[in-house]
Write a structure and sequence with these properties.
Layout (H helix, E strand, L loop, with lengths): L1 H16 L6 H14 L5 H30 L2 H12 L4 H38 L4 H17 L9 H9 L4 H27 L22 H23 L4 H18 L5 H7 L3 H18 L2 H13 L3 H19 L1 H12 L5 H13 L9 H12 L6 H21 L3
Length: about 425
């Protein structure tokens, strides 16, 4: 247990710290190689882990490529300007609309897509609107929170969703029908809690006349209009794929490549540049870190968790669901939600209560917001902001996350009871 834990902790530190620009995927792969060489995991374990995460990882890459192409044609910038203008200059309405937009993007393009694509657009627009630093920070913190709290409704909305759905053989439709209510509740409760906490930093009026015409940001209006139809067809494809038990990545990655080809035809994107700049490090991060985590499973960590979760399962649905969700949330906050989701999935396999698998997803999606290193989306979000000159300190972020997350998490978990 000591050796496996040490390899995991050192790997996680390097993933979060990223010394000398060492990328997250590289650190995870190095950790996996060390675990393999020292016998913490076997080559057969590597094959098992790859089988678990390949679909989730390829689907994620597809979603990001699709998001990048849509961003290139002006899709998200159009949405951001339209959202701001719909508020008619009311600062509080703009705050709510910004969070609704974040919820929409997170649901359809995953939480990481929201962090990578939407954050810099919103930041640029807020600076254009000449909002003060406190207001910009309030919008950014709220947007960062909603990107994870709203990543619940579809299997593809979060890597954790895909991994768990695949692990427990949960179909696309079954998953959506179960998680749509938690998603709606999470979005609404998040907006209310965030507004209550940040309302003093939100201006009453905003001069929206400073914004450009939303149509002026579109690179190709025909392609923009077609993109809405394409997204609807892609969503329909997920339903069809569910009927034939097709992997989620068939549509996520396949659809992204088709749309990229269409954008190239319209001369609105460059195929090689888009594929080259896609976050391929996430592939190595997913496989590498999961191999390291599998070493913890071999060392017996999941056995301890199984005992705790089995005990919770005997105490009624409410206690079992809330308890499982908060355990997942706490572990995600201190050691990242990617390893947590796998550890918890393995531990839950012998419990025999599918509701707890959903509670695990909710805990792993919302719990990471309590610390800056709780999720890959937050790490990406902070990195994007730092590049734009906005630095958020560890305690500043954690204090905010610890206030907002528990009440939202509790309410959302209770929707499963």
């Amino acid at each position: 247990m000591l050796l496996a834990s040490s390899i995991f902790l050192v790997t996680l530190v390097f993933v979060i710290w990223q010394p000398k620009s060492l990328q997250i995927g590289t650190s995870a792969v190095i950790g996996a190689v060390v675990a393999l060489v020292l016998g913490v995991v076997s080559f057969n374990d590597v094959l098992i882990v790859t089988d678990i995460v390949w679909d989730a990882t390829l689907a994620f890459i597809g979603i990001i490529i699709l998001s990048m192409v849509l961003d290139e044609i002006g899709f998200f910038e159009w949405c951001a300007i339209k959202m701001a203008k719909l508020s008619k200059g009311n600062g509080h309405l703009m705050f709510v609309y910004a969070l609704l937009l974040g919820s929409f993007v997170s649901a359809l393009f995953a939480n990481d897509g929201a962090a990578l694509i939407l954050t810099p657009i919103l930041l640029a627009k807020m600076r254009l609107l000449k909002l003060n630093a406190k207001t910009i920070l309030a919008f950014l913190l709220a947007g960062g929170f909603i990107s994870d709290s709203a990543s619940l409704p579809f299997v593809f909305s979060n890597l954790t969703n895909i991994v768990t759905a695949n692990y427990f053989n949960i179909g696309f439709v079954e998953y959506m029908l179960t998680m749509m209510v938690p998603y709606i509740v999470s979005t609404m409760v998040s907006i209310v809690v965030l507004w209550l906490i940040l309302r003093n930093d939100i201006p009453k009026r905003v001069d929206i006349s400073l914004l450009t015409d939303e149509n002026s940001v579109l690179k190709n209006r025909t392609l923009f209009k077609f993109s809405w139809l394409f997204l609807a067809l892609l969503l329909a494809g997920y339903f069809i794929g569910d009927s034939y038990d097709l992997p989620i990545s068939v549509f996520a990655l396949g659809g992204a490549l088709v749309f990229l080809a269409i954008a190239v035809y319209f001369k609105s994107a460059k195929a090689w540049l888009t594929i080259k700049t896609a976050p391929w490090q996430v592939v190595w991060f997913s496989i590498g870190l999961y191999i390291v985590v599998y070493g913890l499973k071999n060392a017996g960590l999941t056995d301890y968790l199984t005992v705790v979760l089995q005990d919770l399962a005997t105490r009624g649905d409410a206690i079992a669901i809330v308890g499982t969700g908060f355990i997942a949330a706490f572990l995600s906050a201190i050691m990242n939600n990617m390893p947590t989701i796998m550890i918890m999935d393995i531990a839950l396999a012998d419990v025999g209560n599918e509701a707890l698998a959903y509670a695990n997803i909710i805990g792993c999606n919302l719990g990471p917001k309590m610390t800056p290193f709780g999720s890959l989306a937050t790490l990406l979000w902070l990195h994007v902001l730092a590049q734009k000159g906005v630095k958020i300190g560890f305690w500043q972020y954690s204090k905010f996350g610890l206030i907002v997350t528990p009440p939202v998490l509790l309410v959302v978990l209770l929707t499963l009871v």
